[in-house]
Amino acid sequence: MKRIFLLFSSAVASALILFALNAGDAPKTGPASEKRFPPLSLPPGFKAALFACDPLIEYPSVIAAGPRPGAIFVAIDYMTGLGSDGKVKSEIRLVEDTNGDGYADKATVVAKGFNSIQGLANHDDTLFVMHAPFLTAVPKPGAHAAASAEQKHLLTGLGLPPEKNSSRLHCANGVTVGHDGWLYLALGDNGVNVLRLEGDRLIHNGGAILRCRPDGRDLHVFSTGLRNIYDIALDAELNVFTRDNENDGGTYMIRVCHAFHGSDHGYPYDYYERPDHAMKPIGDFDLGSSAGGVCYLETQFPPAYRGNLFFGEWGKSVVRYELKRAASGFAPVKEIEFASGNPKDAYPFKPTDVIVQRDGTLMVSDYADGQRPKRGRGRIYHIAHVGKGVPPVSKDSTLASKLNSESYFDRWEAQKIAEHGGRAALAQLDKAALGQRARMHLIWARARTDGANALDGLLRMAKEDPDPGVRAQAVRAIADLADPVLVKHKLNAGRGDAKLAERLAALGVGQDARVQLEMVITLGRLRWAGAPEWLGKNLRKPDAALAHAAMQTLRRADNWPAVLRLLDQPNAAPIRTIAVRALSDQFDATVADALIQRLGNEPNSDHQGEYAEVLARIHKAPGPWKYWGYRPGPRPANTERWARTQAIEAALNRLLARKGFVKRAEVLKAMEREKVPIRLETLVGLLKNEFQPEGTKLVLAALAGFPPADTRRMFDEVVRDRRHSAENRIAALKTLLKLGGDDPRKRLMEYVKTLEDGLPLAEVLNELSVMSKPESVALFVSKLKSKDAHVRAAALTLLAGYGDVEAVPFVLPFLKDSDAAVRLAATRSAGRLNVKEAAGPLLKLAPDPRFRGACLDSLRLLRDGRAVPIALASLREGLSELKALHCLADLGGPEHVRAVVDFAKRRPSTPTLTICVRVLAGWRSLVALTPDQRKAMDRAIAEIHGATGILVRWHARGPSDRQSLQKNLKQSAPPGKAFPPSGWRTLFAGGAEGRLALAPRVEPKNPLWLAGTEVQVADATPIEFLASGRGSLEVWLNGTSIYRRAKDKNFQIDSDRFHATLLKGGNRLLVQTGGSSPIEFHLRFRRKSAKAQHEKLIQAALTRTGNAGRGSKIFFDKEKSQCLKCHSLANQGERIGPDLTGIGKRFSRIHIIESILEPSRSIAPSFGTLIVTTKNGKTFNGVKVADDEKALTLADNQGAKHVIARAGIDDVQASPISIMPDGLEQRLTADEFVDLIAFLTSQQNGAR
């Protein structure tokens, strides 16, 4: 679970604590509290009661079962909830229902002084608390209040302390107690560095599951390759499950994992690089944020829910997964929503933890909007099944009957009684009729009572018990009793009992897959050297889980010669593939030497490729570990040389040079990826023999790293050699030109003479087009007659760029050429060559979107006024808009003012508005205009300013001293006076925020500048100005100073904010600034929203920076933000609405904010809403995404596409309402909205 928090003062936090516990008003408890919030949505037959809410609880991060019925422990996480500096610590409260009405009425602080609490478990009258970097034990937590003095840190070093990790994330998370006597610890990927109680140190980099005894002893790694798991769920057979978090909008999605001892789940690299090396998840879902979870093992819920996993999905719902065995592991699961919030709830449902009560009901903690300081919300829901079929409570209380119970709580309680009763109790149970579930618990009671003395009995059960689940459980218990790490109590413990391993191996032959899995894991834990040979003989058709366990056991066996012999098994043998995986990433001289030898002798090219891949990855060893961040980039190559680095380099280079080697491209990729040097002589040889496009591409990339003098000839040979692909020849040409060192024109002209007609020659002509015109163009003219369309197009473009008249006769024929590229080249060239006769054909081509922009450019150059209607249509249709504006600027005039103004209002990005205003300003300067027409142009520009709030055209005076400036101010400020006065120069603001640069530096004697502009609005308009500037800043509106800042400060967008009201009609703004270099400012305004909630969100998004990482998660959550249902970003999502790639570069922060809150204010023409009515009376609303003579296709605001037959359409109307629905912000808290804006404004690259 990733939580969103705000910074808040410790003083207010302390006040909140006192209010919650000591307020004089009666607490909001009992059935009446249900009226505060809408109910949860649940399946039929279930009911949720609001067990507790504020002020009894607040910021509930995790919960645990209480010491008695009707009571639970709740972690109150002030450190993350308030974003505090650590002065206000988190605490644990015992929340109880003392009167039996089903609602909590009492909250007692039982322990305090914790860091951010992310894990909580109650076992044997001890609370186990995970709060980075500690695992802490609180004994007898229900006996008295505030037992801080008795708390004991069992482990230190689980993740980072708060002072080194302000977010408190990705560290110590959940803790779960198993009936095998272990604490299972969930760790985020900041890793661990723990001095164990035994004296040695456990260091693990990355996310993992750890185990330790309840007193902290025998800490060890259980499972690895996880990201940021928040909890661990155990089923009745102690199978381990977790739900991992996605990597903030990356490719690692929410995953449900089945973990076992030694399993590696592939994060952060193998899950996408080598998924077959990682333990495959049983569920791979979408974006999300996982929270606490549990496996339901009771009987209060109907049978369909028993054995299900239940996990919280932060900000959304509680989900469940039905578990079904499949071979040694589990079948893929589906995600089913179980409990979700009510859309009318003012405080969105944010489940943080799920636990099962002793009576079989669920408790769910809900952060509500607890991340908002001053509120301290929080809820605990009690969910029960109230439909038919609720089983009666069993009254049989004998030890055997309890051990046979369907209830997990009953069985575990009976197991603990048996353990406390010792051998006498176990002897009694040996005589009883025990079912399968009971025998599994008896295994652990015997193991925990007798220790190593239980091994013989467990071996008998592993061999003779009729149930494979019991046999598997016996083997697992044997592993815990015999693992040398646990027997010798040290991590570097060496091998285990080889004779025991041999006995187990004999039992493992022909067993059920579940037994085989535990057997293979155990042989690995024993470090049995015979494991490779045994697996080679007995592993026949392993499923994914068993194959993964076998890979890890081969590694743990530490018998590399035996593993290497498995490479001689037939290709079809699964153990051979598993052995190759096991050898990967092993920096062992035996492994490296053997693979180098095999590489030289192996005739099979597939095997050669496998060995080369393994060797490339161990070419160098990893350097010091550095945290990879919440969204890791590609895996970096290793950096540390070791004893076999040089030998591996030589072997791989020899392999590349081997004649007839068909896996050359794969090996080149591996060497490039792992930064294995490729020798120049190797590359030279490859270019003579390697003509596969992919291989040559890699060779060319490798050559680029050598000195130009050594490689220039090789690139030249590739350019000339027809056996290479056109793509590689062009790449070689571009590289050659970048290398320099000779006359590029001479080289290119030689290529024109010698290269055959085709793409490489066309690229040569394109390169020549950016150089000055040579003395003779006859060679280029000859290429106009080429049979290759690319060459004809390039030759015409080249000659047109030179303005050479010899190309003119070819323009008209080329406009009719069968090849679109040639027609496009002719379209672009007609204007450059001033081919007047081309105007008619250009007008015919203009309706085609492929040629529209080029047609407008050429018609503009030809000064053909018939282009104007096409340009106007382009503005309406959203095609080649910028070229249309340039066309209107040259060929249009005052009569087209309205079209430009309307377009500017529809497309209010600063770059577009700047062009629009420049077009109008250009028309204003026309000599033929009357004074009234010039005033009309000024009003049009002022209208654009007023409609968009982006102030583009300014008039400025400076540099000036203060006295002169005051004189200018008096002359210019009142709106009735002529503006601008003579001597002022016109400037245009630029950039997404409309920044105006006045001067590069301050002149000490004349430090000030004055700038002014005008704004036109239809009605009096309350607004907020957003401004910034390096120097002092004063703003006048209609002659009145409305804002003054005397001190200089750093330029920070929107940092100066103030309110005013624009008058109906014309308004004049003046800005005085200066005193700090460079002299610049930005000023824009926004209309205040009529909706109070919108105004609150706007202020929040303008005053706070937000967290782009959290915003990314919100954006990519389709159900939460709904953005990707219509928009695309970086090739993700739908292309119904505008592409949001680079949106932060194109639009100001306030524009993005307002576009979300008021989507219909400004709609791009290409994305206007159509209302289509069919002849049978149906109505469809949406954006047109396809249109032809047969059908019109609309896409609605849910991403659904509707294909409507043309023959069935009755009417089509444009709508002023965007399909982007109003009220999307209601799905988000203020914090989430701010984070979403932070993410969108951070999108600065790849603008389209």
Description of the molecule:
The protein folds into 6 domains: 10-385, TolB, C-terminal domain (Neuraminidase, 6 Propeller); 395-498, no CATH class; 745-833, Alpha Horseshoe (Leucine-rich Repeat Variant); 835-886, no CATH class; 893-1088, Jelly Rolls (Sandwich), CATH 2.60.120; 1097-1241, Roll (SH3 type barrels). The chain has 43 helices and 45 strands. 37% of the residues lie in helices and 21% in strands. Residues 1-27 have low confidence and may be disordered. The chain is globular, with a radius of gyration of 37 Å. By secondary structure, it is of the alpha+beta class. A 6-stranded antiparallel β-sheet has the order 30-29-32-37-34-35. Strands 44-43-42-41-45 form a 5-stranded antiparallel β-sheet, with no helix packed on it. The chain has a 4-stranded antiparallel β-sheet with strand order 1-28-27-26, with no helix packed on it. The chain starts with 9 loop residues before the first helix and ends in a 7-residue tail after the last helix.
Keywords:
1248 residues, alpha+beta, Neuraminidase, Leucine-rich Repeat Variant, six-stranded antiparallel sheet, five-stranded antiparallel sheet, 43 helices
